[in-house]
Design a protein that fits this description.
alpha/beta, 6 strands, 6-stranded parallel beta sheet
Length: 229
């Protein structure tokens, strides 16, 4: 994923949600002050592997076998808690610290990398929780222009961001346990974000020339006309 390709999509997201680029950049710069550059070679096992990108949806409990079969497991947000409770190893947690930041802290202390995303409204969480983490185990990320140690590997929500990280690292195949695009329990903003996650997975599918089972029966209705396919 070229940063320029992602930033073209980022422009569309900003316009759709009315988000402020400057706020994202301020958050990115604050995260840069709290972190060091992360050595992506530590995740070299992803290359050529099947990566389970576990979502935090209610279906995860019924789809643990998908994660167990994968070579590598990336967990979005609170999916990490479900997986760990069931004895499924988490190789990377991807989070903006909005749900279970204590889990992110614990994982870094245990030696597991955590990709922390900075965006316009999570600066207080960054300031509170990132200093508690083992610094070398934090992969700092942004959805805006990268700066300093903070990288942009693509992605908007925790779940699709995890998929983009796996793609960047050379995953051979991606699976998606725990993804529920039509979860009736989410609020309207989360529903809009899930719609974007679906859109971004479809975009990634096309870029990878791969078909993700999680999009079966849905992909024909996903509009990617504004994205640089």
């Amino acid at each position: 994923m070229l940063v320029s390709d992602w930033l073209a999509v980022y422009e569309v997201i900003l316009a759709d949600f009315g988000f402020d680029r400057a706020s994202d950049e301020r958050a990115r710069d604050r995260l840069a002050e709290l972190t060091d550059a992360f050595d992506l070679d530590r995740l070299a096992s992803v290359e050529g592997s099947t990566v389970a990108v576990a979502g935090a949806g209610p279906s995860l409990a019924d789809e643990l076998a998908v994660a167990r079969r994968a070579d590598v497991v990336f967990a979005a947000s609170s999916a990490a808690d479900v997986l760990r409770a069931e004895g499924v190893r988490v190789d990377l947690m991807v989070t903006d610290l909005d749900k279970n930041p204590a889990t992110a802290v614990q994982l870094t202390h245990e030696g597991t990398p955590v990709a922390v995303a900075a965006h316009g409204d999570n600066v207080p969480a960054l300031v509170e929780w990132v200093p508690q983490m083992t610094r070398r185990n934090v992969l700092p990320t942004t959805q805006a222009e990268p700066a300093g140690p903070v990288v942009n590997l693509g992605g908007f929500t925790d779940g699709d961001r995890a998929a983009f990280v796996a793609d960047h690292l050379g995953a051979a195949a991606l699976t998606f346990p725990g993804w529920d695009f039509d979860d009736p329990e989410v609020d309207p903003m989360k529903r809009r974000k899930l719609a974007w996650a679906e859109r971004l997975l479809r975009w990634l599918e096309l870029r990878r020339d791969e078909r993700f089972a999680v999009l079966d029966g849905r992909r024909e209705g996903v509009d990617v006309s504004a994205l640089p396919v």
